[in-house]
Design brief:
The chain has 171 residues and is an all-alpha fold. It has a single domain, classed as Farnesyl Diphosphate Synthase (Orthogonal Bundle). It is built from eight helices and two strands; from the N terminus they run H-H-H-H-H-E-E-H-H-H. It has a two-stranded antiparallel ribbon with strand order 1-2. Helix 2 packs across helix 5 and helix 3 crosses helix 7.
């Protein structure tokens, strides 16, 4: 019989291989995100920098880039734009989740809501979503816009459902 490879070791190896293979494109995703989050509003700048610099593997962006590659996409911009969108949506939902869950730490770092408050965290999360939608509108593919719209709608319905369960448990 064959040997068993621990999943964590195998997954880490696969992640690092994917990251090395797509490193140049991933850096372009990072640059696009940084560009889109530049703001003359100091609070937006500070909060988005804090949140985005607090870690994360960018696994969603890597999977988006690799999916584009596997489907034969050879251009140089749409995959990067959509990978940035996936990361912006993910980041926005994390900001919102930290407020809902009253979290004070994420990945061992203080959450934005624990530093700047819940209202600011929700608003900056919404700002990240608006920047994502700006990228999608510029892309011009209504099918992509509709896809993300449906996913966000489903995500928010689930969050509301979970909040409703928590409220029922209290009363």
């Amino acid at each position: 019989m064959g040997s068993v490879i621990p999943l964590k070791k195998s997954a880490n190896s696969a992640y690092l291989e994917l990251k090395n293979m797509l490193g140049v494109k991933l850096q372009k995703v990072e640059s696009l995100i940084e560009h889109k989050l530049k703001s003359d509003v100091d609070l937006i700048k500070k909060m988005s920098e804090h949140h985005l610099k607090s870690g994360g593997k960018r696994l969603r962006a890597l999977l988006t880039l690799e999916s584009a590659k596997l489907t034969g996409y050879k251009e140089e911009i749409r995959d990067i734009n959509l990978a940035a969108c996936v990361e912006l949506i993910h980041s926005a939902t994390l900001l919102h989740d930290d407020v809902i869950d009253e979290s004070s730490l994420r990945r061992g770092v203080k959450t934005t809501n624990s530093i700047w408050g819940n209202q600011s965290s929700i608003l900056v999360g919404d700002y990240l979503l608006s920047r994502c939608f700006e990228i999608m509108v510029k892309d011009g593919d209504l099918e992509i816009c509709n896809f993300y719209h449906q996913r966000l709608q489903k995500l928010h319905k689930e969050k509301c459902f979970n909040c409703n369960i928590k409220v029922k448990q209290i009363f």
